[in-house]
Write the structure tokens for this entry.
Amino acid sequence: MIIANPIYDVVFRYLMEDAEIAKGLIAKIINEEIVELSFEPQILSSRSTKFDLVILRLDFKATIKTPNGEHKKVLIELQKSKNTNDILRFRKYLAENYATEDVIEGENNSLPIITIYFLGFSLENITTPALKVNRQYFDLINEKQLNVKETFIEKLTHDCYVIQIKRLDETIETELESVLQVFNQTYISKDKKLLLLQKTDFATNELVQLMIDRLGKAASDKALLKQIEVEEEVENTIESHIRDKHKLEEKIVDLQDSMSKKDRELSEKDKLIEELKKQLKNKK
């Protein structure tokens, strides 16, 4: 099965533009029942003037059905990046969503936020390909965990999910691992734009089949493949600028070290000249 590689932003965005796929994938990651999911207006792909790499950001508004049957509205912020240095922009976009308000029953209310990060690089100390960082309430006086939720706190803090694309392997023990196989870079072809999936049991999953079908169409979409080439060219240009920048910084450091050494030598020479002058004066 030949599919377009969703590690590319243009392919990932194409995949997530399918409402059924977006709803199913997010539901599997956060392990919640999503009753309704809609795109928010902003689908941002930010690139700074300093040649930093891209963060793709997709915003969704969702209605989640809780285990006790209640419905709650949340903002889901999905961010994807290939660069380890994007933490500041992750924080920036999260802050923007904290400022977002939603009208509920005639009142402006800030919605709780759930963040999902798709990383094109590996975290140093975490080997699992799928990670959840959730909130816990802890009574510091009685030193015990509280099994309650408070709206005020829920709107000030958020759950976080991290998918490490490069940590994915061919191990399939859970449904989530099956779903994430379409991102697995071990299936990469000689043409990095494509993945070659084996027809294994994971493809019998209905959501996975939807994703494979859509990514299969993307693999034969000439316009989309051309956009991938453009994305590669831009990233190669950016990486070239970064390498040049690092080389220039190294040259500056070397020059500063050299100048510092010369300054020390000149200082020593000045001291020697002063000493010789003193000796000459004494002789006179």
Q: What stands out?
A: Residues 179 and 192 are 21 Å apart (CA to CA). The mean pLDDT is 80. Residues 222-284 form one domain.
